Structure to design on (205 residues):
């Protein structure tokens, strides 16, 4: 169709061929966007959604039974710090990457920021506060002091709990194995050599 014929058709219909094709293209794009916009809308916070129902959780922490009423989304770390005022376990990255929140669950090392409190019911949780026996320090705590295994001290509770778990596991013997097994605990001050010495002393005691 040449321009003159197109002009004649436009006079009859009130719409040129180019305008018609443009409208069809826009309509097609709109149809494709509908499901995407609908999905995006479903991902937005629902202000009308009912809050999660709190649950009662019974935790064994440092040898004592603790009964808490918690939102099911509360992490073990937040339950320890905010509900039980056990602030020895530190909140660092909150993504399980720094190890500052490490505690022992049935003697096994875990990142408490990655575990929901409700998941730990029936588990024996030991924090840095529960390692010492009264005034008597745990051997790992004493070794950290002796070898100056800390500077700022922020990561130290997690480092010590992780080191206690490592010794109990019994499969890290060489310096390289210990470093590898402790690699999940980050020390921004760089006291790694002193931490290694402390762990080795307790292992050989």
């Amino acid at each position: 169709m040449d321009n003159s014929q197109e002009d004649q058709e436009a006079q009859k219909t009130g719409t040129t061929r180019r305008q018609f094709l443009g409208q069809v293209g826009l309509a097609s794009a709109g149809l494709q966007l509908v499901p995407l916009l609908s999905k995006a809308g479903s991902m937005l916070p629902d202000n009308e959604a009912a809050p999660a129902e709190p649950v009662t959780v019974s935790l064994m922490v440092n040898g004592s039974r603790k009964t808490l009423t918690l939102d099911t989304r509360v992490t073990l770390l937040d339950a320890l710090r905010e509900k039980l005022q056990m602030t020895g376990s530190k909140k660092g990255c909150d993504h399980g990457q720094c190890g500052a929140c490490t505690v022992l669950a049935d003697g096994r090392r875990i990142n408490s920021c990655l575990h929901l409190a409700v998941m730990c019911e029936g588990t024996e949780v030991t924090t840095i506060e529960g390692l010492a026996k009264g005034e008597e320090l745990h051997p790992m705590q004493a070794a950290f002091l002796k070898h100056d295994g800390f500077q700022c001290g922020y990561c130290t509770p997690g480092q010590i709990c992780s080191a206690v778990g490592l010794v109990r596991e019994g499969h890290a013997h060489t310096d390289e194995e210990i470093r590898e097994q402790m690699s999940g605990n980050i020390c921004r001050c760089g006291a790694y050599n002193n931490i290694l010495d402390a762990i080795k002393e307790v292992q050989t005691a």
